[in-house]
Amino acid sequence: MLICANGRKHMPKPIVPMTVEAATMELPDTKTLRLKWPDGYAVEFKTGQFITVHFPDAPAYKRAYSLSSCALDRGFYEITIKREGKMGTRLVDWTQPGDQLMVIPPAGRFLPVFEPNKHLICIAGGSGVTPFRGFVREATRRRLKTRITVLYSVRTTNDIIFNAEFRALAQENRNFSFYVTCTRLSAQDPWSGRRGRIDGAWVREQIQDLPNTVFYACGPNPLVEAAEHLVWQDLAVPREQMKTEKWG
Q1: CB atoms near residue 99 (< 10 Å)
Q2: Residue 9: per-residue pLDDT
């Protein structure tokens, strides 16, 4: 038991063993793991939160991953991992259905503001797009009027995670838009979409009602820090209108 600064007692969250129910390669270096809840497990959580996992044989080495599933997905968690570092490499290259991971239940405040008059502009780089899959899944299933725009920066067209799913969701949900920009394509590449990094002009094009816009940024530190500078400095948006998650 932990004692918080205000004197309240705080029980640590339980660590729960979960079986890998499915392992799907999204890209050659990116895998989605579906972790099946054990019998009797029914934790309440919110879309946009993360879980912390570790292998049974390495309890001291834990890693937090954003949920790529949403709160309407019951009976399992999904996380989408890139082959990075020791944990990411083991999860992508070696973890298979039937394996077990130890899971600390969801936490975090990177939460979508699902209000009818709001517009969520979600800036992502690389695997930082994964929590936004949960945002759009929930909004689409609930038929919400909240507008969601994902601006996604990748190196090449081979690095777009959930490309088919996002484009299908954009067809189903008229309040959702999915835009990709590529930063490392050759001049000969046939890609007809946007090229270059996410910049202020591109973000400004998406804004229609600034006071009712909520900005999100998730991904590598340089991308998130550039988004923070744009939103807080250039656009002079109040800090409470932006939520960020930096992934190192």
Answers
A1: 16
A2: 57
